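Key idea: predict the complex, not the pieces.
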Amino acid sequence: MLRRTCAVIAFGWLLCVAPATGAAQDLRKHGEYLFRAAGCATCHTNEKNRGAPLAGGRALKTPFGVFYTPNITPDPETGIGRWSEADFTRALRAGVSPEGQHYYPAFPYPSYARMRDEDVRVLWAYLSKAKPVRRANKPHELLWFVRYRPLLGFWKALFFRPGPYQSRSDRTEIWNRGAYLANAVGHCGECHTPRNLLGGMKERMAMAGTRAGPEGDPIPNITPHKTSGIGRWRESDLMEYFDSGMMPDGDFAGDIMAEVVDNSLRHLTQDDRRAIAGYILSLPPVDNPVRKEKKNTDSDF
Amino acid sequence: MTKHDVRKRFIELGAAVFAVALPLGLQASDPQDIIKYRQAVMKANGGHLAAAGAIIQGKVDEHQGQLAEHVRAVQAINKDIPALFPDGSDLGETKALEAVWNKRADFEKRAKDTREKSEALAKAVSGGDNKIIVARLKELQDACKACHKDFRKEEKKK
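Result:
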């Protein structure tokens, strides 16, 4: 009798709990996947100085000064432990902090604003369960004329278009997936699209590279232009690059892009890598040579 | 031992030191030439690895017979990467970061890892099991990328 009761209880427990944990696990997995694809850890971890994951402190050198990325672990004092899901959504969608301050677009909310509601929710569910780390934020060191945050309101009025990604009906589902991953979640354009003097993206030169990227380094043109872009790469070349970091000539991604491969791209599914590759190669080719040196005088190492 | 012998010894010793030091002195090449040389070597390294990768992935089966050669070349080149980065070759037209010299132990660890992964790939290729070859290639690629991540400045690529 006892054994039977136990069996019934155990069975009931399985019925109630198992599906719940299964769903929770799926949610966690989905959250982790988006977290990878969004590349949060790359900027919000000061890996070079062995900083704790997501505790911030990485210096981002830009033409406007040095930004120090904030702590986004759920620590209540120094991180985002007191944030609600609504706070998180507003940060990503509108670039506004819970205190109502504008964020600098060094935080790529103009891209994250394109994320779907469901994905933002899932990402929050994952991020809010990260390991809390106590580490106070370091103030940015910016040029005087960008220190006054309310001015960012003007910047937003000029360059920021809110709203999630709108699928294009004249394109395939895979293309739309690639566009969504590259532009909304993966925010490739934040580095690869050149900016004007005020830091707004030059949309007609999407992904055409720049000589003055983050950290002051040149960022390559990844439009499929035959001479100044990656017009000779094929879809399989890009997929290989996303997976291993190896380029068609056997050279490897280094520096920031190696981090992007390690932290984000290699964790994507083969289908998503194909979608991004296909999307990138479908971009209008833009002739924008960003290489300093002339051809055949490469200085590798 | 007479005084004369001692003097003779000294002269012999001096000649020996001179004989050893002379070629060493000649080896102090122009840093820019050292940089150009290592860029050429690295380019060859990448070329052979890309070629090996194309064969391993079955893109160019007609060149299957060349795989062992490419992999042997990669192994030979990666035998002593730090030798390509001697002191004094940090200035000039190079993308090598200062960390190559001021975090030398970390750099040598990465180089050793690359050497070992190259040897492992060569071994796998002579073994002939494609699944193992693919796995070893992946590990070598990781080693290359890890070193580039920490020790080379990223610069636009086509």
